[in-house]
Each structure stands twice: as C-alpha cells, then as structure tokens.
Amino acid sequence: MILSLQPPAGVAPVLVLAVGNPSRGDDALGPLAAQRIAQLALPGVEVLTDFQLQVEHALDLLGRRQVVFIDAAASGEAPFELRPLAPSPDLRHSSHSLSPAAVLDAYCRLTGAEPPPARLLAIRGHHFDLGAPLGEAASANLDAALAALLPGLGAAVPAVRPEPWPA
Q: Does the predicted TM-score (pTM) go above 0.90?
C-alpha cells in the first residue's frame, strides 16, 4: 500500500526532530536543542523530541520542505557537525531504533517518493552516564551548534539562554 503524500492540515514546512535521553548526561543535547528552538516559536517550524527514532517518524516527514535531525554524538567533530543526509537502510536486526538516514529510507519505502531535504546536526558530547548532568563542554557545543543552525531556520540567535533542562 502506498500512502498519500497529502500532508496533514497545517503542517509546518520545517521539522526539527531531536532525539536523546535527558537523564543520560550529554545525551540531553538533542532534547535541550529542541527545547531552545521551540521556545523561539519560529513560524513554519515544528519541533518534535523523542528518546530514539522509530519507523513511525517517517510519517512525520509528510508535507515537509526541510527536516533537521538533532542528536548528541559520542565521537566525531567538535563542537558539532551539520551535514546533509540521504536515505539509507539500517543493517540492524531491530526496528526499535533507527538512524536518521534509515528514517528517510523508511519514508521512501512507505510513500514511494523522495524524502524532503534533510540534515543531521550531531552535537559532540562526552559523558553519557545515567543521572549525570550536561557537561560544560557539551553545553558550549550546544551553543555553537544552535548559533550555526538557527539562521538557516529563519531565526536570530537569542541573546539570553533559557533555563537548563530539569535534572
């Protein structure tokens, strides 16, 4: 069965889809980025947050003109990497979590169409222990990542930072 590509009524053209666990130290980078972006109430931008990506997230891409996935990165460039994504199936043996590229691939398989242009904002984290707070280096990386991302979403970087994520 091929799904309709008709977007839900009033769907925002830009989707920010952030993932991470706020209870695992720097893994909170995705949810914190989402919180700060959502507080800006940018017109045409919808922000979603989840602990991990699922196949169902492919349906959230319907009707979008742009998608930005945000997640903490345990390795890679610091302070962040912002790169385009292409659909690619995961070679995992589980459907309980997907990579952003696999979500795009699921969209292609479900709809029979190309997904909207997508990017990954991978923010470098260092400490992912359960119950740990966000580290200082990760917090600075978050600031740098949002400073790079927000102008492309049609927003100026806010001068005042919001309250930190509750522990």
A: no
Which alpha helices (DSSP H) does the chain contain, by range?
A: 29-39, 100-111, 136-149
**How distant, in Å, are the alpha carbons of 15, 27, 88, 163 from that of 5?**
16, 33, 20, 38
pLDDT in single tens digits along all 167 residues of the chain: 555 567 778 889 999 999 999 999 999 999 999 999 999 999 999 999 999 999 889 999 999 999 999 999 999 888 999 999 999 987 765 555 899 999 999 999 988 999 999 999 999 999 999 989 999 999 999 999 999 999 988 755 554 444 454 44
**Which two three-digit tokens encode residue 139?**
């917090």
CATH homologous superfamily of 14-153: HybD-like (3.40.50.1450)
Closest CA to 52 of 92, 12, 111: 92
Q: Rounded CA gap, 68 and 75, in Å?
A: 19
